[in-house]
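Suppose a classmate hands you a notebook page containing two proteins, each written out with its sequence and a corresponding row of structure tokens. How would you begin to make sense of it? This section walks through that situation. The first entry is reproduced here exactly as it would appear on such a page.
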Amino acid sequence: MLKPACSAHQAGIGLVESLVAMLVLSVGVGALAWTQARQLADGRDTAARSMAVLLTEDLADRMRFNRGAAADGSYQLRWSEHPPSADCRSAPCSSASLARADLFAWREALAQALPGSDAQVFIAGETRRQIGIAISWAAPATAQPLPPIGIACPPQSNCHVTYVPI
């Protein structure tokens, strides 16, 4: 007697195929999650850079208003230095005291806008005709920050530097 011919046709998916499909799907979902996390970190860094630009412009305007004190170097500030406050609202004060009051108020605004940030204000160049304003903030863990040319940015930080002619 003849045996019936076996059908080689498969009806459905097997266990191996479903495991491979789940592996491919999980890799795709993981890649999407990584991309989303990276965009979130980059968005925070972009917001911090925008705030740094606004704060450097604020201090630059203060220095342009008090140009004599800026030219004298009264606005110089080292990394991690916190200037003493000066009260120029209740009584008139000298241009150096106004510079101190400006730096104190600006440092307070910097601490509120960019927690954990730092700043440096320095005379740039030999001619003393420019003042540099540098602001640093923590770099995202995945970033490789590039330091600006001509200034030592604190480690693991991004920096924004603006030069103001005086």
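The notebook's second entry, a different protein, reads as follows.
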Amino acid sequence: MGTVFVLGALRNDDATSDRDGAAQPPAATDAGRVPEAYLGRWSGKAAASGGTIPLGTFEVTLRQAKPGQRVGTVVQHDLIGNTCTDVLTLKSATKEELVATGKGAETNGGQCAQTSHTVRLRPDGRTLGYTSDDPDAGDPRARLTRRK
């Protein structure tokens, strides 16, 4: 989702009209881009079902994207050695919250939840809160720290 700034919208000046007075489309901004604070590698312990079931470690990798583009992945390493990967497609990103659609990678094994779900990432100081509305996986939650 992009933000559009309209300069001179209430007056007829060169910023919004051409020489014949016809309206020109306003310039778009990069508001749909992912804020730098999210970018990079993050990891932390995850749990499901309100924190009662440990899920192992989540590794989240985020890159620059615009809405509708792949923004990253979530790799889960569970307690018995299985690995599941979700591909994240950006819905929106602000400094308060990044929202993406997660979907199991086609290469996942049968133990992995494959349904589409909403993932929310929220910065909290030096950590990133991870929540997923994915009942098939127990609605995972995690507190992630940046990795180098």
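A careful reader of the second entry would note: The two ends are 30 Å apart (CA to CA).
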